[in-house]
Design a protein that fits this description.
Chain A has 10 helices and no strands. By secondary structure, chain A is mainly α. In chain A, helix 2 runs parallel beside helix 5, helix 4 crosses helix 5 and helix 5 packs across helix 8. Chain A starts with a helix and ends in an 8-residue tail after the last helix. The model of chain A has no long low-confidence stretch (mean pLDDT 89). Classes of the chains: A mainly alpha, B alpha/beta. The interface between A and B is medium-sized, with 16 and 18 residues.
Chain lengths: 234, 238
Amino acid sequence: MNDIWAGLEAAFWLIVTLNTDLLEITLRSLQVSLTALVIASLIALPLGTWLAIRRFRYRRATIAGLNALMGLPPVVVGLIVYLLLSRSGPLGVLGLLFTPTAMIIAQVIIITPLIASITHQAIRELWADYHDLLISLNTTKKQRIMTLIWDARRTLLTASLAGFGRAIGEVGAIMIVGGNIDHATRVLTTAIALETSKGDFALALGLGFVLIALALAVNFTIHALSRTERDSTW
Amino acid sequence: MVTLKAGLTLTAALVKRRQKTILGPIDLALAASGFTIVLGPNGAGKTTLLKVLHGIERLSAGSVTWPITEPLVRQQQAFVFQSPIMLRRSVWANLAYPLQLLGRPRAEIAQKVDDWAGRIGLETALNRQAPRLSAGEKQKLTLARALIRQPQTLFLDEPCANLDGRSTREIETLLRNAFDNGTRIIMATHDLGQARRLATDVVFLLNGQLQDQGLAPRIFNAPGTPQSQAFFAGEIVE
């Protein structure tokens, strides 16, 4: 219990004194996770929608595979990305290992299946509701996809926020591909892991509270901007 | 006024699902104008017939021909489903949607949406979410959304099922106005009273087969088959 109080106290002082190290790793956490979120959303939202309305031969197997990929172990993703980006790997020439870009790549791989799978589920249900109407109105494929994405936008926002939650709290993969280098690739989660291993539980807890506050703040901000839960909207 | 010139024609039309015959084979010719009521008990094939005529149900065999070229068929037709399909948008956005698909100018869309909202009594509810309307309001909205494109032909699949008398009367008034303005209407219903009030001609289906067809006075006064005689006498036919 003392550690938790000490953690709260540490978090309080880190924030009120605008600790520069805290600011730096917080901004890096946001930069890496939000960039990964945007890239993953650009891939996953159309992919999930396409899977919901398109019929093709191996559709069920593809959806089952996508759902299975939601459980990808981040450490294994980190290891594979590490091997791809390491000097002797096929993408080693790009020199991306131990950079924020490598961390973004790992996070995109981890969260894309999650967002795509939730998108697929949401759009599939909406498509079942809208199917007859949209066919009857002679809509083009593009019009159907745009209509479905627009009308499911709040559920898709939830899918994206779930992806953000997984990305901002991820530690295994980005530790491997980022290396937790001070002033270069250190983010909140890797800093927490480091302080815990050093035995500085108060600072680790303090950083943990900052991480939780950050995740909540991003969620509240996006909900406020998208005007969810208002009486006249979804 | 029913003209004799054929508008919609089914030739040996057959619809099967998983080896089960849902409709046909039937031959049917519908006039280019009029208010056709499709009658029959549950499972008679009324909905399937309407969907075939609208072009959204594939035929297993036979053919359907329209008086206009096929790509234009669904642009010049509209369909009102038995369960109102509401876009998860406001009343305004639901009314505007068919016009937006056609790329109509914003001013025209706004003017038509206001006009139709007034006609269905939802002018003060334009910003309400459509799925939260009452059953009667939803059905009026789907009817207005179908008519806002001024279709040549309007199909309705039991639009007044589960509605009270007042809502039914409002829907019927909208339908009569559309018919008077030249819209060809083909509607399925269970309600014999409604059929008598609205029909210019009647199609009677039973077990996916066409049992009787003709102008409303003849069908109601002198049904042509034992099955249709029993049905119009109020007996239960299967």
